[in-house]
Amino acid sequence: MDEQKKVVTRFAPSPTGLFHAGSYRTALFAYIFARQNNGKFILRIEDTDKMRSTKEYEDNIIESLKWLGLSYDEFYRQSDRTEIYKKYIKKLIDSGHAYVSEETPKEAGDRAEVIRFKNPNKKVAFDDLIRGKIEFDTTELGDFVIAKSIDEPVFHLVNVVDDYEMGMTHIIRGEDHISNTPRQILIFEAIGAKPPIYAHIPLLLGKDRSKLSKRKGAISMTEYRNRGFLPEALVNYMALLGWHPADDIEVLSLEQIIKDFTLDRVQKAGAIFDEEKLQWFDRQYISKLSDNDFHSKASAFIPEWLKTDSVRLNRCIVLLREKVSSFGEIPKLFEADGELGFVKELKSYTPDMLLWKKNPSKEAAAANLKQASESLEAIPDDSFTAESIKNSIWKYAEEKGKGDVLWPLRMALTGQDKSPDPFNSAFILGKVESLTRIKYALEKLS
Ligand code: GLU
């Protein structure tokens, strides 16, 4: 009958900090496996460590899962379930699988009494779906603590009781938990339950192949969100950390991944987290957005002053789409020394800067700017686009020398050498502002 049991998986984080991609990839794999089997995915907050668990971190986990689009079917919090654990502790004591142990307190705060599991000291083995057969002799684990008191169960006990009570069929978690599995299997057996199937997924490594950790610069989901990454890009990239589809096509929607994913294609070796690759994915997803979607998703990153100027903002969108690989790069572009700083304000520049380096003649610069001004002026207001601007000047620029014509124009429009081409700059500024800036440049030259 076991084969027909509905698949149940879970994400069981301890809310003791902000999590990086490693934890959310674990959640993602458990989610995918549940969904592809029409099973159930549970979020369980493991907050028995009262000193280190906070509501704030719990909220952050909930928000991050929501942002990533990983919905769960049931939600539990271990601190709400003390009565359930108490029942199991009593049962274990009554059946001789656990006992109240008198302790000699070594330092302040140590208990004089704890509840220990009576270790049968035997070999346990399990077939890990990713790592194959794993065998342990539990003798060296001794009689380990399962509760500090009847009301204060600790990790191994609550973890097992919940997995049993919640009908977990598959435990998909990080391989740092492999060493916990033998104790947990012993507890499963003691409460008369069959252990679930385990799949321990490889750790995430930094580019230097060391374990990804906060100290090593791993950043939280919240930070990726604040930096403007698209959740679709993160989900896609995380799914490929340790797993790859048979045909090696990389850009995949979550639905597609749910169709293609198999646990047996998950590798044993650690997977390297490469932020540049994440950026590449983000770019792929940004490029697929319609202008409207780009606009609304980028909104939080658009400077307020530009939002009040919707005409100009719309003109910036095309350029932004080309320039950024995540929305978080947008604010910098509009800062005074950013490439699009000129949109808000013309940077101050000296007349010399208007001169093309290969032909630093004031007369030539002035004549070319004048011609450019006339050409722009002649474009009807309603067809003042980067393309029409280019068409109106291009032939002249080719005749007189591109640098001779386009350099002074770029400087006149933006006051900065690092800026978009003058056609796009003029388009963004609009006809009136462009002509005003050119006029100002001509005054500087006279
Ligand atoms: N609460 C544990 C942790 O955050 C997870 C335990 C498990 O997945 O079994 O590491």
Describe the structure.
- The protein has helices at 21-36, 55-68, 82-94, 155-165, 181-190, 221-226, 231-239, 254-260, 275-288, 291-298, 304-307, 310-323, 330-334, 362-378, 386-400, 402-414, 422-429, 431-445; strands at 8-11, 40-45, 74-77, 98-102, 113-117, 123-128, 132-137, 145-149, 152-153, 170-174, 197-201, 204-205, 271-272.
- It has 446 residues and is an alpha/beta fold.
- Among the domains are: 291-343; 351-445, Orthogonal Bundle (Arc Repressor Mutant, subunit A), CATH 1.10.10.350.
- The strands form five sheets. Strands 4-5-8-9 form a four-stranded antiparallel sheet.
- Helix 1 (21-36) crosses helix 8 (254-260) and helix 14 packs antiparallel against helix 18 (431-445).
- It starts with 7 loop residues before the first strand and ends with a helix.
- The mean pLDDT is 95.
- Bound molecules: glutamic acid.
- Glutamic acid (GLU) binds next to loops.
Ordered list of secondary-structure elements with their pairings:
Layout: E1 8-11, H1 21-36, E2 40-45, H2 55-68, E3 74-77, H3 82-94, E4 98-102, E5 113-117, E6 123-128, E7 132-137, E8 145-149, E9 152-153, H4 155-165, E10 170-174, H5 181-190, E11 197-201, E12 204-205, H6 221-226, H7 231-239, H8 254-260, E13 271-272, H9 275-288, H10 291-298, H11 304-307, H12 310-323, H13 330-334, H14 362-378, H15 386-400, H16 402-414, H17 422-429, H18 431-445
Parallel strand pairs: 1-2, 2-3, 10-11, 12-13
Antiparallel strand pairs: 4-5, 5-8, 6-7, 8-9
Helix pairs in contact: 1-8, 4-5, 7-9, 12-17, 14-15, 14-16, 14-18, 15-16, 15-17, 16-17, 16-18, 17-18
This protein binds glutamic acid (GLU).
